[in-house]
């Protein structure tokens, strides 16, 4: 596929949240693979905010200057690592991201790049988790929609602990390609979700 | 040569024996030196006879003292003090001269003699008064500042007094007075101009050059040369040496070499002052005292009484707190070293006869010896009484019902208080450093001046109603005293304390202080954490390791506290065990995380 010119590509902010990236295989490889993409900003939250004290104004400015927000994180307890939740709680302020006058993120896209320890078939109605990834990621999807953003199809890597080094390398390369190929046609889920009426945001 | 060595050995031995003993009995170092002087002097063991020469030589200690004091006062602060100096100093000298001259006339002396005696006796001893003030860190208190203002005025006043003596002698004296008029004034002005110009423009390049050579002893030599040179210059111009070096000190107070100068001059100052006090002790003419005890003791009493009354009146003008009034009066009631100079000059001019000079010299020397005694009496019996009923108009903090009292507003307490201010929490701040207070008030902080270990001040600060007392004072003794006082009188106050070091922390733990923080602990941990990060550890991992270390260290502190009274070996074993355990734990944490990589999520 021919590369689209950098200036035509949407600006992508990768919010990377892994407390011990040096001990991770897949997330370390993924974060390492996306270096050098001119339209991608890698933002290592645990490195920048080890005290969990988030500079809200700085984060909001970062969000404002990007079109696509990628949350890259391992799937801890069916959710994100705690610092990313703290980031959401403090940065997505009422009156800025949502609520009266909260229009700063309108039209942007949120997408997740998640690695799970369990294999893909575990996240099925008949799998041992009993629910799908789409169900479990619902809080993120709803948050995006409340902020007037679209929610892109998650970029998943499942069964991480059983994967070979080759699998890891291949996935990291695919991640780079995936970010490079943006914008993706928005398929599902979330793109077809009706926007929240302004009066209820 | 042998004589010099022998004398030095005698002085040093006397000081080394007498001063620690005097200190031990709470008498202060000055009294120790005086006693040493009496013992080795012509009326004691007769080990030293040439008292006059020693006294003259050791007066240089006073010169150094004023230089060091000058170093701590920059021109701006001196200018702020102009009214106390002129008002209090002028009042004290005029009042005392008047009273003492009247006493002389009552005793039947001629009026020139009485006036010369009055002038000389109105002056106090800078060395004797300042030593206790600096020793107790009281120079910053209102009483200390007022006393210092008066002493400074006296140093200046001695110049016109010396100029006045030839006039008192009348027409009979012709020699030397030919120059006393405008030429003398010109010389004085020139000398001061040289000091001001040199101090401002020449000393800095000079010190920079000398400091650049890296030769420590040459720097000391230059410092001494500077002080001695100025003293000589002042002497040539007929001015007070002490005044000249004080001026030089003030001019150097803002230079970057201030602390180095201070620490270089300090030991010389201390030893020479000690020698001076010893010499005063030796110069007490016990022969005269024994032959005319009534006259001598009566005059000493009259001198002290008259000056103390004048000082009491002056202290009312200065609005001194009552608790400091007695000390203020006692410290300045004695006669001073300038009296010796003045009487010597008066005798030479024929204003006084030799007998009167001898008598007054004994009186002055004895009065100087009483000053440290009076200070002890004040400490033991007078000040404690007045402390209770003290009104302290300048010092009383307004009780604003603030929930927090911060004691100590230095580098440490400032951060605590500013955090609270920033969150609009009412804070009453107490500190005893006037410089800090003046600066902070200008920045709009409400800081009250006073010794936080005093019950009345704590009460005035609203300790009975406050919720939290933050003890952030520098001194460990003050910190512990304050903790005791607060626990005893204000049990509702929750105490949060800064610990200077481990023993201090243990002392605070012994008192069950609920919150204790070692002052360097957290900043050192931060630097350790940054080091881990610089070595390539991810920020969050470094943070976690640091926090784990902190937790272990705090537990170790509790154990150390529990075993504090046991022997050193036991404590060392304990620390070694704790260190090994911490290493194990940190390694185990790491291993658990590594295992999680394989078993858990990635």
Concise synopsis of the structure shown:
The complex is a heterodimer of chains A (201) and B (602). Chain A has 201 residues and is an alpha/beta fold. Chain A has seven helices and six strands; from the N terminus they run E-H-E-H-H-E-H-E-H-H-E-E-H.
Overall residue-averaged pLDDT value of chain B:
83
Annotation field: number of helices of chain A: 7
Outline type of chain A: globular
Question: How many strands, what sense, and barrel or not for the largest sheet of chain B?
Answer: 6 strands, parallel
Radius of gyration over C-alpha positions of chain A, nearest whole angstrom: 17 Å
Strand percentage of chain B: under 5%
Q: So what's the overall shape of chain B? A: elongated
Q: What number of domains of chain A?
A: 1
CATH class of chain A: Alpha Beta
Low-confidence stretches of chain A: none
The name of the CATH superfamily of chain A reads Flavodoxin domain
Largest sheet of chain A: 6 strands, parallel
Helical content of chain B (DSSP H or I, runs of 4+): over 70%
Question: How would you state the average pLDDT of chain A, rounded?
Answer: 89
Counted beta strands of chain B: 6
Number of separate strands of chain A: 6
Helical residue percent band of chain A: 25-40%
Rg of chain B over CA atoms, rounded to whole Å, is 30 Å
Name of the level-1 CATH class of the largest domain in chain B? Mainly Alpha
